């Protein structure tokens, strides 16, 4: 039997998918639900504890006491300010070493992963457990992007990579060459809604979600699910593009069906 | 007497400041108010015409008939989609040559300036007419950024320059190292309002407005005015940073007074 998996659970349905995958192979698991991100009710039926982000020592103790050997981070967590984090002595020790101010989101997550490894845990990515979540190349549904949409996708990736170079954001909305919106702390759904309102006449915008260049793949890969498609449909966007093999698509069949029924495309583009 | 100045008027008070400057030296002028951006009522007392953005031939004719020799673009214009632009033959000819899809905002504005030059107009920048608008180095008001704010400003410029490299946006809000928001098509006021809501505990965010690397200085320099300060104060931000000599501060005394009374800093930082 595989070693017990510790799941650091953020928001959304990704932690639930990881639990499903463990159940399917009867792998033992323990969930550490992160306060302010995860919904603790989601984990009532599995061994779990809830913990605030700054409680480093307690988190490590819980993982050890529950016999966790391997760890996975699943689901987004909004980054707190240092003031709201109230780090305990263990978290403070880490921040003192890495220098919180200088780090972007991916830099911070990489540092946290390194910290868990120094404490003796193996850290894997969601895609190591659920390889089928990685976006394939090409259109997922029946609809393919047209020439204007392909040009907008290319522009979106160009901009997203420039953002990624300075470790900010993952998502961009482009309409007819015009960058309508860039994601920072507001999250993708808020970006989609705002960009939808800013659209001009003619063919609608496209949402591009890209990994950061050199991104730590065990943390926070760009993710698309049915909710993303529904938000794009409500906002009047034309489709979604992600990098094949680098983004996660939660429930590919449902995403594909949602795209077809809304008349949107979802496409995986091979990263250059 | 100086040659007649044509003012391509966008939104905000910058066109009015240029008119004031012309009046002060009794320089003749003609305003072409851009539909959807400029408020035509602002120009009732000066020679002017209103024109839609796509009407290239009519615009050139109006400038020539009114004896304009030198041109200045003043005030932001939201970029339209090609569909809403409905370009006439003259604008279509330009777009056919430059390839609209491939251009960012600064690329497009540079191409438009070149087009006017080919038609025989001299094109100058707002700062050529109103040199006093260029942001000085150092704090404008009584309040200076503290160490955390200076770190956030440095991070903001790093991110803004990365965005500028791909010719998107000019403004970024950073709080305690966390990039809260990035400007695209929504405009700076909407960015400020959104980022304010996303702030976490502790010292508030700072707004950074940066020119793009290699930016065409005769178009759309980053601008700060009293309204910017008021929006930052409402949103709970701590201050504003711009690049000295590269950003415009409209009514420096009023901005400085507004900053002091709201307890905010406004600082010009020398670009590296």
Describe the structure.
The structure is a homodimer of 272-residue chains. By secondary structure, chain A is α/β, with parallel strands linked by helices. Chain A has ten helices and 13 strands. Chain A has helices at residues 14-24, 56-65, 82-85, 89-98, 105-118, 126-129, 147-165, 188-198, 226-235, 252-262; strands at 5-9, 29-34, 48-51, 70-74, 122-124, 138-139, 171-175, 178-182, 206-209, 223-224, 239-243, 248-249, 265-269. In chain A, the strands form three sheets. In chain A, strands 6-13-11-9-7-8 form a six-stranded mixed beta sheet, with helices on both faces. The radius of gyration of chain A is 19 Å and the shape is globular. Chain A starts with a strand and ends with a strand. The interface between A and B is large, with 44 and 44 residues.
